[in-house]
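Handout, section B. The chain below has 142 residues.
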Amino acid sequence: MAELRAIAPRVPVVANLLRPLDVSASGMSVQRRRMEAIASNIANAETTSTAEGGPYRRRVVRLAPGANGSGVRVTGMEEDARPGAVVYDPGHPDADPNGYVRYPNVDVTAEMVDLMVTRRAYEANATVFQVAKAMLRRALDI
């Protein structure tokens, strides 16, 4: 029993030492999900007809703080409700009786900018993870 009491105070210290790894790992996981959503948006930027009917809807990842302040987590994937462009193209197979086609609400330029920002955030989290891991290794050497 005395051994357990001697170990118990150290557990929060170890958890605090590992928190930077947890925070950066959650950040990398979130950024990966954002990259997947952006890739799907870019791939479907011209999809005017889906199985659900109508044009593809831009997907957006929703985030929330992690438990006990440990990073961030994905709460879901939602469709952007904004309408897409309507273009007159009577020869298009998805044109309405008046010749108009509703396109997805995806702006490829904005998606590319989001992809660059997301990639940089992923790289930053990966760098934090590597630095924290190196610091923990050095602490073990002491």
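Note. The chain is about 50% helix and 15% strand. Compare this with the example in section A.
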